[in-house]
Every structure is written in structure tokens, then in C-alpha cells.
Specification:
Length: 366
């Protein structure tokens, strides 16, 4: 795509947030949903409550989640609340590590067994000569949106307008960071043309945008809705891959695997039966999500995740269902699309030889 064509397309793309944000603005009325401190379980079920594994038999598995209240990771917690891990015979402890990079680091360091994080991390780790493999896909899209900060409404109208600006991401090297770097390159800019700042997720990300600490930011739900509630209106969006249409426009694909369960290849090889049970539990959860309404799903989630209004939380879930996988399987086109993004956005990948078949497997979701 030529640069001027890219600018024209992005001017056309600037638009208010769709129903996903509109119906959920009041989620922040009681504050953003609070995540458990690092190293603690974020789900009441994990400590032996309803649907929990506290008294369950079977292998003990600790799953680190890259931000438990983010809806992209909803299936991991929902599987606990539905009792599916326990029914499959695996004793699961969920840890909210409040960021994908932190969750990955915890697993590499041995404090967790499995990560509920983004598939692209398996590609990044292979480039560092570490074998990590995803074994069940939860997300068909990353669920990201690039928002203009309140102070720049009417000033930033395209990706090209980000030149010389400061863009907020959850953390360096995260999926949000890779997203902005990809968009800059796709639109003919250098990755250094815009600076990036770590603003985290949740209240810190909302505050950074509201207080004008950054000029724009890559964010996820429910943070987007919390921010819009505080501002009092929908902020403009430059790019949005929460919908199938947006995904196709940005990544030129119908699937871009994102949230997944992954583990060290060595752990998978030594714990195939356990991995199979985890995959089956998540697959059952995805089927439950596909076959139930937002209200029915919200009713099964921890009360605090609703931010004080379960009806609105249910509407957000209903809108975001289309970003989730229906069967837990990775597609060849999808993993290739993620690698393409990494080659453009991540200098550590570049033109390195990557064996995609070693970064994922569908053997546990057949």
C-alpha cells in the first residue's frame, strides 16, 4: 500500500467506538474491575469455591494470566467458574499477573506451568532459542483498538499524524506494542517516528489517557469503556480489530490467533494427559460461550468483574464474542498472519527462520 493511500484510508477509518463501548460506559460507575495482586488467584473458584479446584484431585497446574479482568482472557476464568477443569480431572490455580510479558516471564522462570497469553509470544521465544508451544487457541482476534487521547481529538486523524507523538502501550514488547509498530510500518513510517510509553492496563492506562500523559494508546476492553465513561463521550479510534471487518482490513486475514494457553514444549511433552484435559476444558468453555447469551455468560463470571453492573457487562461480552475462537483450533492462515505481523513489527524476528509448526499444536483439541 502506498503511503498516501494509507493516509486516505485511515482518515476514513477514524470513527467513534461502536456498540461495544457504548453499551458499557457505565461499567466504570463503581470503578474499573480490580485484578488480584500478582501471585494471587483472581477467581474465587481457584480457592475452592464454586467451580474451583481447591478440593479437586488430579494434577496440579498453575496458570498465569496476562490480565485476568481483560475480556480477551475470559475463557480461562470462565472454565474455572463452570467447573470444567475439575470435571476434566485437573487441579487448576489461576494467577493474575496483570500483563502478558509478566505472565510469560513467570512461566519461563518456573513459578507457573502454563500461560494464558498471546500466541505471538511463542514465535518471539523461538527467535530466542526457547521452545514454547501454544496448545489451545481462545482468540480469533487480538481485540485491540488504537484510540486518540482526549487532548488530541480533532488533531490526530490518521496513523500518519502519530509522527512525533507518544503512544501508550501496556508494556514494551507486548501485543499492544507490536500492534502500533505494525501500523506505523504499514503506513510508511519508521517505528521510531512515534515514541511508545508503558501505561499498563486497567486504572493506570485509563489515567494516562485521561490526564494527557500520552497522545494516543492501544487499549482493550473493559479499559476502553471505563475511559469513555470518565471522558463522557466516545473517543475516536484509528484502528479497531475487535470486529471481523477490522481484522480483515488491518491484517488481511479472517483469523489472527491471540489469547491462548501455551507452555514450554518440554512441559507439554512430559504432561500430555494434563495438557489434553486443560485443552478440553477450554474447548468446552468456548462452546459454552458460543451457545449462550452475554447475560448467561456474565452470570457465571466473578461478580467483581462486572464493575457493578452485570447487565452492561453482559452486553460487552455479547459484542466481544465474535473475537473468540469457537473450537480452540489454530489455523494455518492465522499463524502465518501473526508471523507476518511479527516480521514487520519486531526487529528480533525480522527475517529469521521460524518453524511455525513448532509454535503451536492442535493435537489436544481434535
Amino acid at each position: 500500500m502506498k503511503h498516501n493511500e494509507g493516509q486516505h484510508r485511515h482518515r476514513r477509518l477514524v470513527r467513534p467506538l461502536t456498540l461495544i463501548a457504548s453499551v458499557a460506559l457505565a461499567l466504570s460507575a463503581c470503578g474499573a474491575p480490580s485484578a488480584a495482586p500478582p501471585g494471587q488467584t483472581g477467581s474465587p473458584g481457584a480457592s475452592g469455591g464454586a467451580g474451583g479446584a481447591g478440593g479437586a484431585g488430579g494434577a496440579k497446574v498453575t496458570i498465569g494470566i496476562g490480565g485476568q479482568t481483560l475480556l480477551t482472557y475470559l475463557p480461562t476464568t470462565l472454565a474455572q467458574e463452570l467447573g470444567y477443569y475439575q470435571e476434566e480431572g485437573v487441579n487448576v490455580e489461576l494467577q493474575d499477573l496483570q500483563g502478558g510479558s509478566k505472565a510469560l516471564t513467570a512461566m519461563i522462570g518456573g513459578s507457573t506451568n502454563v500461560t494464558s497469553g498471546y500466541y505471538e509470544h511463542t514465535i518471539q521465544m523461538q527467535a530466542k532459542n526457547q521452545s514454547v508451544k501454544a496448545f489451545v487457541d481462545m482468540g480469533r482476534s487480538s481485540g485491540l483498538a488504537l484510540l486518540v487521547a482526549p487532548k488530541n481529538e480533532g488533531k490526530i486523524k490518521s496513523i500518519a499524524d502519530l509522527k512525533g507523538k507518544n503512544v501508550g502501550v501496556t508494556s514494551p514488547g507486548s501485543s499492544t506494542d507490536m500492534f502500533i509498530k505494525f501500523l506505523l510500518a504499514k503506513n510508511g513510517l519508521q517505528q521510531t517516528d512515534a515514541a511508545v510509553s508503558a501505561i499498563g492496563a486497567g486504572s493506570s492506562a485509563v489515567a494516562a489517557m485521561e490526564q494527557g500523559q500520552v497522545d494516543a494508546a492501544v487499549m482493550l476492553e473493559p479499559d476502553i469503556s471505563v475511559l469513555n465513561k470518565r471522558i463522557g463521550h466516545d473517543l475516536p479510534v484509528l484502528e479497531d480489530v475487535r470486529t471481523a471487518e477490522g481484522l480483515k482490513e488491518v491484517f488481511e486475514t479472517d483469523a489472527w490467533p491471540s489469547s491462548s494457553l501455551y507452555a514450554k514444549a518440554e512441559w507439554l511433552e512430559q504432561n500430555k494427559e494434563t495438557a489434553g484435559k486443560l485443552a478440553k476444558a477450554i474447548k468446552r468453555t468456548l462452546e459454552f460461550i458460543d451457545g449462550h447469551s452475554g447475560e448467561e455468560i456474565a452470570a457465571k463470571m466473578p461478580e467483581k468483574f462486572a464493575g457493578g453492573d452485570k447487565a452492561l457487562y453482559a452486553k460487552v461480552i455479547a459484542e466481544l464474542k465474535e473475537t473468540l475462537s469457537k473450537d480452540g483450533a489454530f489455523t494455518e492462515d492465522g499463524v502465518k498472519a501473526v508471523l507476518k505481523t511479527q516480521r514487520v513489527a519486531n526487529p528480533e524476528i525480522g527475517d529469521k527462520a521460524i518453524k511455525l509448526e513448532d509454535t503451536y499444536t492442535n493435537e489436544f483439541v481434535k
